[in-house]
Specification:
Elements lengths: L11 H26 L4 H11 L1 H22 L2 H26 L14 H8 L1 H24 L5 H22 L7 H7 L9 H16 L14 H18 L8 E7 L11 E3 L5 H7 L3 E6 L7 H10 L13 H4 L10 H7 L3 E6 L8 H8 L3 E4 L17 H14 L4 E6 L18 E3 L3 H25 L6 E7 L8 H5 L8 E8 L12 E3 L4 H9 L5 H12 L2 E3 L2 E4 L2 E3 L6 H18 L13
Parallel strand pairs: 1-6, 1-8, 3-10, 4-5, 4-6
Antiparallel strand pairs: 2-7, 3-9, 8-9, 11-12, 12-13
Length: 611
């Protein structure tokens, strides 16, 4: 007859073995997480845990011990609680390694909300690993649930002990979750030896350990309150820029259609050292770009972070101004907001029909809820699109199909249209989408994926050219802002090391006018950030500027592009932002307005600043 090991039902002589076993399990699991974080380097793990950062390693282990004890208490079984703990930590470490490999950034607590995106996860890690993980997780949860069910048979004495364990560990974990409170004792313990790196989450995790970095990214305010924030300060700012905007506005004769196209992973491989190609995959794109305002956009991320670029483009708020722990506004910020000023809300006031199109599901990054909060009139997804054709083995709806969906809306012509399209055709994986590629590269690694990716962006370029050509048939003026959200995560370490960081954070962008009337249409080498798109488009097309867009327009002339640790000023890139007095005033005005909206009292919403 098999002996069952249940919580607390052990002879005294065995308690010490249980305690030692649990501590050993926690230490090994913490080493495993650090190993995954350090790109499977045993040397770095050993130095971190036993030489460089032993105190932080022990603190992280204590948190893991609490989590283990919580699971064991809930299950009423040391064995089954430990089994679920091992499965959870195993999957978490694997996910961290995968994210570091593809996007060179660690797992954040908010990423755990993506756990239900089964389709995307399967495509990212491959079908076989995905199925194995799902099976292991399902088996673990089954036996964990079974243990909870059977725990009702415990005696009253052990039930009291078990419930006490749940309450105590849950309370302590809740206290741990308040890690970013300056009075939190665990945070104070970390602060004695930790060097937090707000501008680099990757370095944060390396310097404080996986657990330290993970805790650092728990709940936090979007922005810290500026010292000079007050109702009067905001009113002074809104009055100043609103007056300037009203004095310089030149109303266009007709409200134009406005199309935003955020093209998944669209970029030029030829911009990178270590990649040479037999012919230009972006030829059709440059046929358009060379005739209009275009250049390169600074992306916050490499290999991912699509929703953050989208957030910047729609709201004109900068991720650089947020606390570093606010990693995904779509899931961490907007759900808490009742009103989000954006190009959507502005054009709604001007009687535009506003539509978001994403050829994928509605739950990704909570887009359905986010778009509703922003005020879109409708959201067209893969389930409601008329055109759903794909290219060869590509699992995603093609750009050509997506553009047909957009054009159908524009043909109605009863109202001016604002259409925001987020494409999927060029999403990873890349290696097996097409039977053959017309493009061949000589690269420092990963040639197959790069060649397939080039075929992908070539198809995307052709679809864009066809779309812009078709826009000339429309009577209504139609403006297009097109950009790639980030580079794909296909480049080898050799290629990345052969390029400075800026290069792997720059993608292509252009602005197009079907009537060819943009005021700066001869600039083809512009450098910008996505939060400047709307004010730049409004200014160049002669549309009525708001006070907010006037502020951004003036700031763009001084600092054309910036993200954390990337600042473009005076045609040079720097790691820090050095400003003169006038530039500092513009930057501070922008920061105060953004704080007022995301964390403050919304004083600016009570004015005409966003109208």
């Amino acid at each position: 007859m098999k002996k069952k090991l249940q919580l607390f039902k052990k002879k005294p002589i065995k308690y010490s073995l249980i305690i030692v076993g649990m501590i050993l399990l926690v230490f090994i699991s913490n080493l495993y997480l650090q190993w995954c974080q350090n790109e499977l380097s045993f040397d770095l793990v050993a130095k971190f845990a036993f030489s460089w950062h032993t105190e932080k390693f022990i603190l992280g282990s204590l948190v893991l011990l609490l989590f283990l004890l919580f699971l064991c208490s809930v299950a009423g079984s040391l064995i089954l609680g430990s089994v679920l703990y091992v499965i959870t930590i195993g999957i978490l470490g694997f996910a961290d390694y995968q994210k570091m490999f593809y996007r060179t950034e660690p797992i954040y607590p908010d990423d755990l909300k993506m756990i239900t995106e089964f389709g995307l996860l399967r495509e990212m890690i491959g079908t076989i690993p995905f199925v194995i993980i799902i099976l292991i997780a399902a088996i673990g949860l089954f036996f964990f649930g079974r243990a909870i069910y059977k725990s009702r048979l415990l005696s009253k004495k052990w039930q009291i002990i078990r419930i006490s364990g749940i309450v105590i560990t849950a309370a302590l974990l809740l206290y741990v979750s308040d890690f970013n409170n300056p009075n939190n004792l665990l945070r104070k313990a970390y602060n004695k030896t930790a060097l937090w790196i707000p501008y680099s989450q990757k370095m944060n995790y390396y310097n404080t350990g996986f657990m330290g970095g993970f805790l650092y990214n728990l709940k936090v305010d979007a922005m810290d309150k500026p010292k000079n924030y007050s109702k009067k300060t905001i009113e002074d700012i809104t009055t100043k820029y609103t007056k300037t905007a009203q004095a310089t506005n030149s109303l266009s004769e007709e409200k134009p259609n406005i199309i935003f196209v955020m093209s998944e992973s669209f970029s030029n491989p030829q911009n990178l050292n270590g990649v040479t190609v037999n012919k230009d995959p972006l030829k059709e794109y440059y046929d358009i770009a060379k005739t209009t305002y275009s250049g390169q956009m600074l992306s916050q991320n490499y290999g991912g972070g699509t929703a953050n670029i989208e957030f910047e483009a729609l709201t004109s708020f900068s991720m650089e101004l947020f606390n570093p722990q606010l990693t995904t506004p779509y899931t961490m910020l907007i759900p808490k907001m009742k009103e989000v000023p954006s190009i959507v809300s502005l054009l709604n006031q001007q009687d535009y029909q506003t539509t978001a199109i994403h050829p994928y599901n509605t739950s990704m990054y909570k887009r359905k809820d986010v778009y509703q909060t922003m005020g879109f009139d409708q959201f067209i997804s893969e389930d409601t699109m008329k055109y759903t054709e794909t290219l060869e083995n590509n699992p995603y709806i093609s750009d050509e199909s997506a553009y047909k969906e957009v054009f159908d809306l524009l043909k109605e012509d009863q109202k001016p249209q604002f259409v925001h399209l987020v494409t999927m055709q060029t999403h990873m994986p890349y290696s097996d989408k097409y039977k053959s590629s017309d493009y061949s590269s000589q690269s420092l690694g990963n040639k197959k994926a790069i060649d397939s990716y080039m075929q992908d962006v070539a198809y995307s370029s052709e679809a864009l050219k066809q779309f812009t050509s078709s826009l000339k048939e429309l009577k209504r003026r139609t403006l297009v802002v097109f950009w790639g959200d980030h580079l794909p995560s296909i480049y080898s370490d050799e290629i990345k090391s052969a390029n400075d960081e800026v290069k792997i954070h720059q993608t292509e962008f252009l602005m197009y006018d079907n009537q060819g009337k943009l005021s700066e249409r001869n600039i083809h080498d512009a450098v910008t950030s996505p939060f400047y798109f709307t004010p730049s488009l409004f200014e160049q097309s002669g549309m009525q500027m708001t006070g907010f867009y006037q502020l951004l327009s003036e700031l763009e002339k001084q600092v054309p592009a910036f993200e954390k640790s990337f600042y473009y000023k005076d045609k040079q890139w720097n790691k820090t932002l050095a400003l003169n007095k006038a530039q500092e005033e513009l930057y501070e005005d922008y920061r105060l307005i953004q704080y007022d909206i995301v964390s403050g009292e919304n004083y600016s919403l009570k004015t005409d600043f966003f109208k």
